[in-house]
Structure formats: C-alpha cells, structure tokens
Recover the amino acids of this structure.
C-alpha cells in the first residue's frame, strides 16, 4: 500500500478513471455491436442509423484516450465498409 499522501490520491484518481473508462468502453462496444447486428439482419436503414450513432461515440472515445486514434479510425472504416455492402 502507498505511504505518501500524493500516492494515495493517485490511487483514488486512477480508480475513478478506471470506472469511467470501463463505462465508455462498454458503451462503445455496444454501439459497434448494434451496427454489426443490423448488418447481419440485412436491415440497411437500421444499419446506417446505427452507424451514424456509433461514429461520434467512437470518435469521442479516441479523443478521451480510451482507445487509440488509429483504432477508432479503423473501427469507423470497417463499420462503414460493412454497412456499404448492404447498398
């Protein structure tokens, strides 16, 4: 266990950030899953709608440092390509 006051504070801060990051990452996965499920159901309208909802969430996660910027870009690209296969 930490002995310094600053180290104890950092432990508390890290715990708070961990919960926040976990929540954001979980929500991110849910949005991505919604897009994939809509594509599997061959529902083009729902897939496009889900993609439009997912892109800002992915970008925000990258901005906050939850995921790497390149990972966010890759996710958006792959999901967009997937939705475009429906026509």
């Amino acid at each position: 266990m930490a002995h310094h006051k600053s180290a104890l504070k950092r432990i508390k801060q890290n715990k708070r950030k961990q919960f926040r990051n976990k929540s954001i990452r979980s929500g991110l996965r849910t949005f991505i899953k919604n897009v994939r499920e809509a594509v599997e159901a061959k529902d083009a309208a729902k897939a496009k709608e889900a993609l439009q909802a997912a892109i800002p969430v992915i970008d925000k996660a990258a901005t906050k440092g939850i995921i790497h910027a390149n990972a966010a870009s890759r996710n958006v690209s792959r999901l967009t390509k997937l939705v475009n296969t429906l026509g």
